[in-house]
Amino acid sequence: MDVNRRFTSTAIVTDFPKIWREFAEGAQIVSMEDTLALDEGAHDLVIHAMSLHWADDPVGQIVQCRRALKPDGLFLGVAFGGATLSELRAAMGEAEAQVMGGISPRVAPMAEVRDMGSLLQRAGLALPVADSLRKRVTYSNAIALMHDLRAMGESNALAARHRAIVPRALFPTVAAIYAESHPAEENRIQATFELVFLTGWAPHDSQQQPLRPGAATHRLADALGVDEFDETAKPVHDRPDVESPKSR
């Protein structure tokens, strides 16, 4: 999304402050806590960067960001979505069933883009938009992928995870199942990361507003260049491909 506007007071919510300080000089950087260190109405841009999928209360995080915005200020959020690490989740489950006789949570559940988009409206943001981008990357094997996740701060932190020392055979089994089920070129494996992007604006009178029902001045049929009434069309109840309510 391109926004033709200059922002002068930016706040960034992130657990990776070094990266963002180098990228957005002068921005206020705050860590993701239950209560964000943001002043009400102080910013024209608030970015929630790659931490929302860890929040216990994601809508509460967005509500606090919305309160920190000036009228007509912009909220941008990006977080991992539901398709992230789907291959690793499947391989871990199958390996645990084989080696340990059951499965435990290993990959944190992540929200679908539709669910994350609804958070924007619940938080009171106007003109909400949610979009996603799937990125497939390759690794030499599943162990290399898990090392990378640990370095990213994305390792398993679920309260219900298996806490005892796992059998030595578990992770080699994961690697073997992963390599067989999700191969890539040159004897590598592929992993999916889904990035969900959220945008919304603090309400302001200058923003476009939906028309009230019945306020349309043009017919949809005219815009589409078709007749509004087709005399050859059969009523729904006379069409053989449509089940009648009485037949259910």
- Which secondary-structure class do the elements indicate? alpha/beta
Shape: globular
Helix content: 25-40%
The biggest beta sheet is recorded as: 7 strands, mixed
Helix-strand pattern? EHEEHEHHEHHEEH
Overall mean pLDDT stands at 85
Q: End-to-end span in angstroms?
A: 47 Å
* Rg from Cα: 24 Å
- Strand proportion: 15-25%
List its salient traits:
alpha/beta; disordered C terminus; 248 residues; seven-stranded mixed sheet; 7 strands
Please tell me about this protein's structure.
The protein is of the alpha/beta class and 248 residues long. 28% of the residues lie in helices and 23% in strands. It has helices at 17-23, 58-67, 86-100, 113-122, 142-151, 170-181, 220-224, and strands at residues 10-13, 28-30, 43-49, 69-80, 126-139, 183-184, 188-201. Strands 1, 2, 3, 4, 5, 6 and 7 form a 7-stranded mixed sheet that branches. Helix 1 (17-23) links the parallel strand 1 (10-13) and strand 2. Helix 3 (86-100) packs across helix 6. The longest helix is centred in the middle third of the chain and has 15 residues, at 86-100. The radius of gyration is 24 Å and the shape is globular.
